[in-house]
Amino acid sequence: MTVALKKVFTRLGRLSDKEQNAIAEILSRELTWSKSFRESQSQLSSLAAEAITEFKDRKTIIKST
After folding, report:
1. What is the DSSP code (8-state) at residue 65?
2. Helix (H/G/I), strand (E/B), else coil: 2
3. pTM recorded for the entire structure
4. Which has the closest alpha carbon to 12: 24, 2, 3, 1?
């Protein structure tokens, strides 16, 4: 564990149990989201390529707001 992370955990340890649990939930969700994002790169690349192709083939509609 890095020095910076140790300092943060020391500060977090001073918070109430309720606050610690809330931060733990946030960190857990972030780690889950980050993993999902990393593991979906090929699918995202495929969708992006499809969108570019449809745009070039003029199959998309651009709406102005």
Report:
1. -
2. coil
3. 0.55
4. 24
On whether the CB atoms of residues 60 and 50 are closer than 8 A, the answer is no
Instruction: In whole angstroms, give the CA distance from residue 44 to residue 51.
Output: 10
- The tens digit of pLDDT for each residue in 8-62 reads 999 999 999 999 999 999 999 998 988 888 888 888 899 999 999 999 998 888 7
Q: How far apart are CA 3 and CA 40, in angstroms?
A: 32
Whole-number Å distance between alpha carbons of 29 and 35: 10
Q: 9-17 — which CB contacts under 8 Å span 24+ positions?
A: none
Whole-number Å distance between alpha carbons of 3 and 51: 44
